[in-house]
Amino acid sequence: MLRLFISISKKTCLILIVFFLSAKISSAQETKHDFWSHMRYGGGIGLNFGSGFFSGTLAPSAIYQFDQQFALGLGLNFTYNSQKNVYNSTVLGASIIGLYNVIPQLQISAEFEQLNVDRNYDTSLNIRNENYWLPALYLGLGYRSNNVAVGIRYDVLYDDDRSIYADPWAPFVRFYF
After folding, report:
1. For the whole prediction, is pTM greater than 0.90?
2. Which of 66, 75, 95, 149 maximizes the CB count within 10 A of its CB?
């Protein structure tokens, strides 16, 4: 009797394991499909021109929209700046961004950005070239309408001597599709 129970228990356990594994695989396939439906892609592009000055930025990013209120994502940043007869700089970096919609139109953001700054000055200026890492932590508030958010952000780690921006306050426009 005990052998029969053990034999039936082994078969039952095997059937249950196969059943749960097949259910898990099916669920994982649904989750995988569901994962991509929550991904949104976007970022920013920027160009600045002025009396001998040029700046261009390309910043693609991707976020995962957990629900209607919260999203988390990663971004890349490439910026090139130059001022005629003064300097040029190349900035490469990455960021992690969190977005929270208090109400559909009001978005709060937190973004940590780590940039590598490479500045090369005109040799006649007798200024040493620089290459350094620059962290930034932006806290922002914006107005959101569908796929676009417009607002302002503040860098709480702003360093007047090392930052690539003139001010810790920076306006932003974000697109996610």
Report:
1. no
2. 149
User: What's the mean pLDDT in 11-31?
Assistant: 52
Say if CB 64 and CB 72 are below 8 A apart: yes
Residue reference for tokens 């930034």: 136
Q: Which two tokens stand for residue 54?
A: 């040029």
Residues 67 and 4 in one domain: no
CA distances from 6 to 2, 3, 21, 60, 126 (A): 6, 5, 22, 59, 86
Question: Same domain for 156 and 134?
Answer: yes
Same domain for 49 and 135, yes or no, is yes
Q: 């669920």: which residue's tokens?
A: 27
Bridge pairing between strands 53-65 and 39-50: antiparallel
